[in-house]
Amino acid sequence: MSQNSTADRRPSSDADVCVVGSGVAGALVAYTLSSRGHDVVILEAGQRFDPGNRLEQMEQSLRPHGSLLDIWNMGGPRDQYVTSGGAYYPLNQTRVKAVGGTTLHWLGITPRLHQKDFEMNTRYGLAADWPIDYEDLRPYYAAAEQEMGVAGTQDNPFEPPRETDYPMDAFPASYSDTLFADACDELEITMHSTPQARNSEAYDGRSQCVGFSTCIPVCPSGAKYSADVHVRKAEAEGARVIDRAPVQRIEHDSTGETVDAAVYATPSGDTYRQDADAFVLACGAVETPRLLLLSESPQYPDGLANSSGAVGRYFMDQPIVSVTGELEQPTNQEPIGYHTRESHQFYDHDDPQPGSVKLVFENVNPESVVRPMLSGGDMTSRENVFDFAMGDSWGDEVLDKIESNYPNNRVRLLANPELLPRRENRVTLDESKTDDFGNPVPDVSWNIGSHARETMEFIREVQYDIFDELGATIVSETDLADPPPASHKMGTTRMGTNPEKSVVTPQLRTHDLDNLYIASSSVFVTGGAMNPTLTIAALALKAGEHIDNAL
Amino acid sequence: MELTRRDALYALVMGGGIGVSGVAYADRKAAENEGIENESGFSTDQLQTVVAIAEVVYPTEVTGIAAFVKQYVTGLRPEKQASLIPVIDAFSAHVREIHDRPFWELSISDRQVALQELGVDRMSPDPTGTLPERVRYHLINQLLYGLFTAPKGSKLVGIENPVGYPGGYQSYQTAPDVTE
Ligand SMILES: Cc1cc2nc3c(=O)[nH]c(=O)nc-3n(C[C@H](O)[C@H](O)[C@H](O)COP(=O)(O)OP(=O)(O)OC[C@H]3O[C@@H](n4cnc5c(N)ncnc54)[C@H](O)[C@@H]3O)c2cc1C
Ligand code: SF4
Asked: Which of residues 118-157 of B touch A (CB under 8 A)?
């Protein structure tokens, strides 16, 4: 099924809606519309992975062979890119192109944005306000939590108002969370549970989390939500998925007001046109603007739906700030693939600076010993999982190395600061390099502005304070000058009411074309410091409703 | 630390059943299999070769290797077993040519030397590569994977529920056992 290159990939006739991309955004739009009786076809660039192979993929991820990117077939000629900003952006490590999209590989943390994130300009004179506010999105947040299956508990005093309980109880604190508790009490830092799209009990026909501890890159039990769940639900409602069908361009009618077709390629070398009444781009925050830019025409010389010139602009992600410390006592933490406690205390700031930041109590000890055992004692860790240098010992020798390299007394704090949208942080086309279809590749230009830098410095101090109070010795920390991104890509086709400054309306329809919608974090006006995917899901459900009304 | 066939079934849980039901299945299977000898596609020679490799690459603290390894490799999925067999045969033929004896008849230190002479310790694992690369991938690393994703094996490094074993949900909440 997955690599089938002879499947029927001819277009559907009489499709009501063509959804491009089958990540969580595309899957939820497709499910919403197909369950309301519309004929939906999904065009997905990547392949379909058989859920029956997830254990094997897990083994592949634990064995030191090949690259982690191979597990979901990320990278290669299809996924060529360049990065030209002040900070390097490792694009292929932040996305999966396959049925289910990046949620096949994600961690699954699902907080809501806070009210302030929608009102950055009104409150602080920074960035821009969203054209909708938290209250507009609130019912969709609740629906998204139900759809994905979010475990959480209302113990977070900083959380924005909510009307319903989480569908499942939160995960209990890890042992290492409890080690932070006294220090945080002393410093008056409130720890609380972490909402996550992971089953703390059996939910929606999927297993409870059993603790394989390999959530990134793959959950073998199905306890972690991934969007292929809603792709299958959409199919059960009659939707059709055409995999390995990268859309090359979107074509409009002679007036330039309506999209006619999505032109896609197939593995057999054919090119087809999929017609539909409405089109939804759900290709993530890099491929969505890229596809619009690739679809330029005489009416839209700067790219489809780009009369504002905003397509590709305001690209955002959140840099990671992390500190690891050693305690004198053993932490003896048994592995689990996710964290269970956070603090949103530093989120709703009064002054413009420092900005919002989310503090995370990470589970670190001990890391997987399978990989170093199998690498002949080569100590790879989660930070450098792309390093596959081989050691040359086994047996007792490796055991000794591991015992001395994995002191069982480590704790770690992580944080994501907000990064403000900046016009010059953007996705453009680089004509000098092409993908496997000869299309110019995306160039991601990412710079970390002073607002995020000040916020990073602020939270690093908080992290130091906690470690001081704990009596921990710091053993490593991420470089504030060169932080890795959290893989939370946002911006690039922003939402707004002014067609001269934004790409989509509050109903997620492009200003320029009557039947072209966008479901993606690309429509975010600001990114906040929360993980984006629950908001992507909420917006997808909202888009689905608007399209249903328009059809 | 003594390994048993039951431990091998625990190691196989991640290759088959899921979670608690998988563990229960492993327990039941272990009871059913008590006393049953090799019913797999492996010959006795092939199994002896694999056991002899495990005796080199497993830490010396580990005992009960033969029972564990036989149960483990014969319990692997049929495709996996099928991928092991040609590598075992090629490796055995190579050793016989040089040492004039089957691998398992060599002393542990000679076996270590035989693996080193072939370059297995210096090569990266590759399922379709050269003989040493394939030995490293299909035999050595598969055996180490079985040991270190099973609770008993990973206890050697102080972990009750290793990454890759479906039993971590309770254990991540528990405090260290300072008596150990
Ligand atoms: C390691 C990691 C951990 C993460 N952890 C979290 C987390 O804990 N919480 C959180 O909120 N977020 C997390 N994220 C981010 C999260 O995964 C993404 O925000 C989310 O999955 C994006 O969903 P999407 O549907 O918008 O895009 P995607 O999932 O990227 O889907 C886009 C789809 O469109 C397809 N596509 C692209 N171009 C075309 C084309 N031309 N034609 C046809 N199809 C096309 C792609 O193949 C892909 O399948 C994480 C990401 C990574 C990489
Ligand atoms: S720990 Fe992660 S990988 Fe394992 S079952 Fe739970 S969610 Fe899935």
From this structure: 121-127, 137, 140-141, 144-145, 147-149, 154, 156-157
At A386, the pLDDT band (50, 70, 90 cuts) reads: very low
Element (H, E) at B146: helix B142-148
Distance in angstroms (rounded) separating the CA atoms of residues B22 and B80: 19
Residue A95's nearest CA partner among A532, A547, A544 is A532
* Strand runs labelled E in A435-528: 440-445, 473-477, 516-518
pTM over 0.90: yes
Output the CA angle A515-A521-A522, nearest 5 degrees.
60
ipTM above 0.90, yes or no: no
Chain A residue with minimum CA distance to B125: A65
What average pLDDT does the segment A137-146 reach? 98
For residues B172 and A175, the answer to whether their CB atoms sit within 8 Å is yes
Is residue A215 within 6 Å of ligand 2 at its C-beta? Answer: yes
Task: Name the pLDDT band for A170 (thresholds 50, 70, 90).
Answer: very high
Residue A539, SS3 per DSSP:
helix
Contacts for A496-501: CB closer than 8 Å, 24+ residues apart = A496/A128, A496/A131, A496/A525, A497/A131, A499/A307, A499/A308, A500/A307, A500/A308, A501/A128, A501/A308, A501/A310
Least confident interval from A7-21, A203-217, A450-464, A530-544:
A203-217
Distance from CA of A333 to the nearest CA of B (A): 6
Q: Which one of the ligands is nearest to A96 CA?
A: 1
Asked if the bond preceding A217 is cis, omega within 30° of 0, the reply is yes
Q: What is the pLDDT of residue A391?
A: 65
Q: Does B62 touch chain A (CB under 8 A)?
A: no
Provide the pLDDT confidence category of residue A378 given band limits of 50, 70 and 90.
Answer: low
Could you tell me if A235 and A91 are in contact, meaning their C-beta atoms sit under 8 angstroms apart? no
Average pLDDT over residues A123-140: 98
Give the type of residue at A25: A
- Structure-block tokens of residue A43: 């065009």
Distance CA A30, CA A36 (A): 10
Q: In what order do the strands lie in the sheet with A240-242?
A: A240-242, A40-43, A17-20, A278-281, A516-518
Dist. CA A221 → ligand 2 center (Å): 7
Going from the C-alpha of A470 to that of each of A176, A180, A360, A366, the distances in angstroms are 12, 7, 16, 19
Tell me the CA distances in angstroms from A534 to A140, A143, A225, A531, B69, one per residue in order: 9, 10, 11, 8, 45
Name residues whose C-beta falls within 8 Å of residue A238's C-beta, 6 or more positions apart in sequence. A34, A39, A40
Tell me which of A7-11, A292-296, A462-466, B174-178 is least confident.
Answer: B174-178
Q: Which residues pair with A43 in a beta bridge?
A: A20, A242
Size of interface A-B (CB pairs under 8 A): 162
